[in-house]
Design brief:
The chain has 314 residues and is α+β, with helices and mostly antiparallel strands. 17% of the residues lie in helices and 23% in strands. The chain is built from seven helices and 18 strands. It has helices at residues 47-53, 59-68, 94-101, 173-180, 225-228, 231-238, 272-279, and strands spanning 28-29, 35-36, 45-46, 71-73, 76-77, 83-84, 90-92, 105-110, 154-155, 164-170, 188-196, 242-243, 246-247, 252-257, 260-265, 282-292, 295-296, 305-307. The strands form five sheets. Strands 8, 9, 10, 11, 14, 15, 16, 17 and 18 form a nine-stranded mixed sheet that branches. A three-stranded antiparallel sheet has the order 5-4-7.
Length: 314
């Protein structure tokens, strides 16, 4: 599709051939020329929400652009809080596009003892590792490190203090929405080293902390756990457990080797894998996240980071 460039830095999608002028916007165009279909009169939504739904920006970013006068709706400069119909044509300026293009997303191999977010109980936050000396030498991304990249750089999800592996920090609200938005179903893959501690909570569906079986720390099985772990309990890990009174979504759980599980989740409750394992008589002795969506941890060394590459998408 050919995109014209009207004065003022806005990009406008061309009208479909034969469309009468008074019925011009049959679909709303994003800044990159993509379209989003909608039915006139089907209801309205706030402009920032609609922009987020179209993948143009996060709601917060959209509000910033609207406040700066960088957004037009049907050819008119947008106002904060305005409502739009699904077929409204939304355009953003080149200033907005340029700002977004300079936002960075960083992949960190988080070590144990580092917290994902703000410092707590004296533990170092992950963002403090994002320094030039910790950048992976094999990172060939187009970005050069600058301290301003640390501004508004936040973790898109969390990884427990005693877990290691892939942690995403981003300035891009679109990435954060994909990974931790309320409707996110992004796969997250973990390698989980376990010891067996008995049968766990054998009640149907699992339960909370009070229903967990007593764990006998003095007599765990740490080798060839697969051979002694009941198959029916493995099935419960895959589907059938509840946490905090809520049924968990199905998970992919297979043995990677006799002492290690490979677990894939599409949700992220606090300490979910550790709590799931306790409920079936397993104790997690090591946990490493190796993938989020299609982005792999790969050979990124522990404690080092790299930029999300141009070809990588969540």
């Amino acid at each position: 599709m050919t995109i014209s460039h009207p004065p003022g830095g806005f990009q406008r999608a061309p009208k479909p051939p034969g469309t009468p002028a008074r019925k011009a916007n049959s679909a709303g165009a994003t800044a990159t020329g993509a379209t989003a279909s909608g039915t006139t009169g089907a209801g309205t939504s706030r402009l920032n929400k609609r922009m987020a739904e179209l993948g143009m920006a996060s709601r917060r970013e959209a509000d910033d652009w609207i406040g700066r006068g960088w957004v037009k709706v049907n050819g008119q400069v947008a106002e904060m809080g305005m409502q739009v119909t699904p077929d409204a044509r939304i355009e953003v300026t080149k200033q907005a596009q340029g700002q977004q293009a300079n936002q960075v997303t960083i992949l960190l191999n988080k070590p144990m003892g580092i917290v994902s977010g703000q410092a707590e109980d004296g533990h170092q936050p992950a963002i403090t590792l994002v320094q030039p000396q910790n950048r992976w030498a094999e990172d060939n991304a187009r970005f050069f490190f600058h301290p301003r990249q640390l501004q508004s750089l936040v973790p898109a999800g969390r990884l427990d203090i005693d877990s290691i592996g892939l942690l995403v920090l981003t300035q891009d609200g679109r990435v954060a929405r994909q990974l931790i938005g309320e409707n996110s179903v992004m796969e997250k893959e973990y390698l989980v080293r376990v010891a067996t501690l008995g049968q766990g909570d054998t009640a149907s569906g699992g339960g909370g902390g009070d229903s967990l079986a007593t764990i006998h720390e003095n007599d765990p099985v740490t080798t060839n756990v697969q051979a002694v772990f009941p198959r029916e309990q493995l099935e419960r890990l895959r589907h059938g457990l509840s946490l905090d009174g809520q049924a968990l979504k199905p998970a992919k759980v297979v043995w990677q080797n006799p002492e290690q599980l490979r677990v894939v989740l599409t949700e992220g409750k606090k300490r979910q894998i550790r709590r799931m394992c306790e409920m079936v008589g397993l104790k997690v002795v090591g946990l490493k996240r190796v993938r989020i969506g299609s982005v792999m941890l790969g050979h990124l060394p522990l404690g080092q980071w790299r930029y999300l590459a141009a070809h990588e998408k969540f």
